[in-house]
Design a protein that fits this description.
With 191 residues, this protein is an alpha+beta fold. Among the domains are: 61 residues, no CATH class; 66 residues, Pantoate--beta-alanine Ligase, Chain: A,domain 2, CATH 3.30.1300. It contains three helices and seven strands; from the N terminus they run αααβββββββ. The protein is elongated, with a radius of gyration of 25 Å.
Length: 191
């Protein structure tokens, strides 16, 4: 077991497997939506296969044209007098996926928007990470610590990925880890 050649092969195999995992993760990483740039929302997967119908409400209640500018909608939408704002909602950041649904009352023409917080997925690829700097004590010594982690996989509220840190005294760590993230209560870590 202490054969240096055997350990070298294991380390090389571990490095190759880690490189393959990172390359696959990077290949499938989605392009994030730019901050402050409105984009057309994708249809909720729950509507797949649901037929559409045409209704004729007597009148539709919309916001005045100035709403488009206040919402920073794309310039072609702002310039088009035939495009109107029915509703707009601000949703607080949340670790859970959310489905936003707008309905229209066909007797009054009034829209209503609903937000459904969905359960966390049982298994998903995750693309979040963080970097931080800390100051504190390790034993009796005061140190600075620079650390970072990159999540790569999610199982419910648990995320796993790569972590690394370096301390002001030269101590360092790099490895794999897992942790639980929650929005409202630590009870989210135990389904």
């Amino acid at each position: 077991m202490n054969d240096p050649v055997s350990w070298a092969y294991r380390i090389i195999l571990l490095i190759i497997l880690a490189a393959i995992a990172v390359l696959a993760w990077l290949h499938f990483k989605p392009v994030p939506q730019p901050v402050g740039a409105p984009t057309i929302a994708k249809q909720a997967p729950q509507l797949a296969g649901v037929q559409t119908e045409t209704i004729k409400p007597p009148s539709v209640v919309v916001f005045k044209q100035t709403a488009k500018k206040k919402l920073f909608l794309p310039q072609p939408v702002q310039d088009d007098p035939h495009q109107h704002v029915l509703a707009s909602s601000r949703i607080p950041a949340n670790l859970h996926p959310q489905t936003i649904t707008t309905t229209i009352d066909d007797t009054t023409g009034k829209p209503s928007t609903y937000v459904t917080v969905e359960p966390l997925p049982w298994l998903a690829v995750k693309y979040t990470g963080s970097a931080r700097i800390d100051y504190g004590y390790r034993g009796a010594d005061r140190i600075w610590r620079l650390s970072g982690h990159q999540d790569m996989i999610q199982v419910k509220a648990w995320a796993g990925g790569i972590s690394a840190s370096i301390d002001s005294d030269g101590q360092h760590f790099i490895g794999l880890g897992a942790g639980c993230n929650w929005d409202h209560s630590i009870s989210e870590c135990w389904p």
